[in-house]
Amino acid sequence: MLIIYYIFSILFKVIEVYMLLLGVYALLSWFPGAYRTALGYWVSYFVEPLLKPFRQLNLRFGVFDLTVLVAFAALQFVRFLLSQLYLMIFTLW
Q1: Domain range spanning residue 38?
Q2: At what angle do helices 2-28 and 38-55 cross, to 10 degrees?
Q3: Rounded to the nearest 10 degrees, what angle do helices 38-55 and 67-92 cross at?
Q4: Own/partner pairs for 16-21, CB < 8 Å, 24+ apart?
Q5: b/e map of 63-90 (b: 16 or more CB within 10 Å)?
Q6: What DSSP letter does each residue of 27-62 carry, written as one string?
Q7: Total domains, the chain
């Protein structure tokens, strides 16, 4: 039972870190050349694999790219599903 708790805790933390990285990635877009810094390369290395499927949806409207926002919403949805699964598992015990 404790192992399940730790697995869910780790999953929640990973999602939180990814959401933080998405926020940093979005902030880096405001500064010209920020993606070519060490921080920009590092954040892009972790965030781009998550954004790649969402980029195929063509979420660019003029100068606005909503890919990061949709990925953030998808992570929120996954976190919600995990929390519901967590509650379902622990209320059955």
Answers
A1: 1-92
A2: 100
A3: 80
A4: 18/46, 18/47, 18/50, 18/75, 19/72, 19/75, 19/76, 21/46, 21/47
A5: eebebbeebbeebeeebeeeeeebeeee
A6: HHTTSTTGGGSHHHHHHHHHHHHHHHHHHTT--EET
A7: 1
Query: What phi, psi does 57 have (nearest 5°)?
Result: -80, -5
At residue 16, the pLDDT reads 97
pLDDT single digits (tens) 26-52:
999 999 999 999 999 999 999 999 999
Regions of the chain with pLDDT less than 70: 93
List the Cα angle 4/6/8 in 5-degree steps: 70
How far apart are alpha carbons 18 and 88 in whole angstroms? Answer: 25
Q: How far apart are CA 52 and CA 55, in angstroms?
A: 5
Q: Which residue type does 77 have?
A: F
CA atoms of 72 and 57, how far apart (whole Å):
15
